[in-house]
Amino acid sequence: MSSIVLGLFAAFVHWVSRFYQLKPPGNFFFIMIASIASCMPFDLEGIPVKVGLIAMGTMLACVIAFVYSLLITKGTFFKSEFVVVVQRNYATIFEAIVIGFFMSLSLLTGLLLKLDNPYWLPISCAAVIQGVTLQQVWRRTFQRILGTFVGLLLTWVLLRFELSLFWICCSIVMLQFIVETLIVRQYAMAIIFMTPLTIFLADVGDSLKFDPNDLITTRFFDIIIGSVIGAVAGWILHHQYLRNKSERQIRKTRIAMYR
């Protein structure tokens, strides 16, 4: 059931992000958070606490962004930005269906394989699908696997120091700064530092309890499987024949429903 819900959510989020032409990373972080949340066990009594923590983090981010915007716009005029809505109904519906299906498939695969944290599969799948062309999808698949391998070695070194929560928080700050600097320049290099960053963010408790060797091995295979599934999804998304045929079928189905 959770895999079906995640697939429907991912399809809807992609449709909305494409409808409003959201800039990259578009739907990625929505899918990432939903994937992690779908595998987190928490009771009804803990939901208000979770919502409160999210609200506090969001407000802090808004305050930081507001202060930064005041600093960079000092002495300049504000420019108005308009949201451009480009309607490509059939293409967007086709992409939403494909992405929703493969997000559901990736999470279901992780659940059937009884992985410790199956959400790594849809996260890796969504990251690979972000490529705008088929060549970029293949390139991102290769770069993500290679960068993940090197990044896991870096994570293993950091975990060997048996960092406390304070130093893990400091590491997250430094890693986030490096990722934001590299992501617009070299994707593979950014993945190296993004790997320990996401592990610390998603598995901060597990990072302190589990053996680093077991944790790194598990994450590597999770990300490989998710990246391969994402590569297949990207191939379907950018296969022109399948794309055109699917869009025509969606158009015929919609006309038949109106009749």
UniProtKB/TrEMBL annotation:
The keyword Transmembrane helix applies. It comes from the Bacteria. Its main location: membrane. It is found in: Membrane. The chain crosses the membrane at residues 51-71, 91-112, 150-175, 187-204, 216-238. Residues 107-232 form the Integral membrane bound transporter domain. It holds the Pfam family FUSC_2. This is Integral membrane bound transporter domain-containing protein. It comes from Flavobacterium saliperosum S13.
